[in-house]
Amino acid sequence: MPVVLKTAEEIAQMRVAGRLAAEVLDFIAPHVKTGMTTGRLNDVCHAYMTDVQGTMPAPLNYAPPGYKPFPKAICTSVNHQVCHGIPGERVLKPGDILNIDVTVIKDGFHGDSSRMYYVGEPSIQARRLSEVTYECMWRGIERVRAGTQLGDLGAAIQAHAEQHGYSVVREFCGHGIGRKFHEDPQILHYGKPGTGMRLEAGMTFTVEPMINAGKAGIRELADGWTIVTKDHSLSAQWEHTVLVTATGYEVLTTSAGTPAAPRLL
Ligand code: MF3
Ligand code: CO
Ligand code: CO
């Protein structure tokens, strides 16, 4: 499928959807604490989306080819879960780290963002993994501008992860986004400089590296969705939706509570 270049009107709508996704991530932060279940996090977010925002959760009943419909409104991926964790009965405990991934639909447009959250105090290793993964996302984002090749973006993310002894998950990638949840191009979080498609102003896509503390290998749980590290090492992920401009990028998934960009990139 060809890459969709968004018009000025579509970009305005993407800004709204992006902000709303980020605002769900702000809203849920104080609820992430010991004793909470991932299922309740889902229910609270779902109600906020539908009742307060007037948005729809894109994951709910999302069923790409080969998958059964995703049964919940958000993804919650705890500790060695890499992505696509299904909210349920799991009770959060001190030291857990989790990714909450929110995709809203507003007036037909998608905004997709995820952040890491700590339950109480994380271990030094878990905090470091989350912080380096955040830097990895930003290493990719800062390379976004018209003319950049996708391999440059992926290589920047991969180099930063591997410098810290971490590994990049290969099976899942960032994606074009707009009227569709997942559209072209695919944004790999690894690669070779000087290779791949050139970015054009008006593209909108996600940058969402999944970084493992151990080896890159993953496997899927019997629920058909949850992805975990094969070696049971911790995994982290951060995600923004961005717009390509002639001179650089605009992060679309920003809100009052969006963490600042790292100081050193
Ligand atoms: N939000 C995820 C992404 O970043 C996709 C989740 S698909 C779901 O692309 F069905 F698991 F929700
Ligand atoms: Co995404
Ligand atoms: Co997402």
Summarize the structure in words.
This protein is α+β, with helices and mostly antiparallel strands and about 260 residues long. The chain is about 25% helix and about 25% strand. It contains four helices and 15 strands. The protein has helices spanning about 10-30, 40-55, 125-140, 150-165; strands at about 55, 75-80, 80-85, 95-105, 110-120, 165-170, 175, 185, 205, 210, 220, 225-230, 235, 240-245, 250. Strands 1, 2, 4 and 5 form a four-stranded antiparallel beta sheet that branches. A three-stranded antiparallel beta sheet has the order 3-12-11, with no helix packed on it. Strand 4 (about 95-105) and strand 5 (about 110-120) form a beta hairpin. Helix 1 (about 10-30) packs across helix 2 (about 40-55) and helix 3 packs antiparallel against helix 4 (about 150-165). The longest helix has 21 residues, at about 10-30. The radius of gyration is 17 Å and the shape is globular. The model has no long low-confidence stretch (mean pLDDT about 100).
Short note summarizing the structure:
By secondary structure, the protein is of the alpha+beta class. It has four helices and 15 strands.
How does the SSE layout of this entry go?
Elements: H1 8-28, H2 38-53, E1 56-57, E2 75-78, E3 81-83, E4 97-106, E5 109-118, H3 124-141, H4 150-163, E6 167-168, E7 174-176, E8 183-187, E9 204-207, E10 210-212, E11 218-220, E12 227-229, E13 235-237, E14 240-244, E15 249-251
Antiparallel strand pairs: 1-4, 2-4, 3-12, 4-5, 6-10, 7-8, 9-14, 10-13, 11-12, 14-15
Helix pairs in contact: 1-2, 3-4
The protein binds 2-amino-4-trifluoromethylsulfanyl-butyric acid and cobalt (II) ion (2 copies).
